[in-house]
Structure prediction request, 218 residues.
Amino acid sequence: MIIRKRGLAAGFESRLIFLGLGLILFSGCRVRQQYFPEGNVQTGEASWYGAEFHGQPTSSREIYDMNDLTAAHNTLPLGTFVMVTNLSNGKSIIVRINDRGPFVKGRVIDLSYAAAKALDMLGPGTAPVRIEVLPNISPPAAAQKFSVQVGSFILKGNAEALRQELEKNFGGVYITPFTTPQQVYYRVRIRARARESAQELALELSARGYTAIIFEDE
Prediction:
């Protein structure tokens, strides 16, 4: 089991997103969703998380239930269903992606306690797995939306001033509030068409002297 930071901050405001985007391939007249650069299958190492995160918000805004068959993945659209197979013992389970992670290099998926138990990997903590996307019951890869955040302010007037400044050179600038129990923050963001365009936009903003952070929109 891998211990790392989660919760509201990790779910909404702490994730830089610079990972590869699944492509759409055209075969004849039929559009086939491709969720990973190499297709709809991914292999790698899985880990799991349990009681220490039980009851906390996930990146999808759902409350994490360690007894549900869910998982965290860094690039698949939230709501994606995948078949996960433990390559050490051949056991498989279907889980739904409702969180982001894992945040350890070399790991591709973070399973709930229930999913890890079904795959018989609680003891070892990690296992080599194969992830197969079930596209017929999953949202399309193209459903993901991204934006680039340029600033976050307590005073709405400061956010409005930055919005007007950015609109001189960029389209799709907007202000979105984020409320915590103590404060309301006004975040200035620019919409992007896809992950790649968000990366290009962030580089351009950085070259102009702004601090740019890419987010997957809630």
About this structure: Residues 195-207 form the longest helix (13 residues).
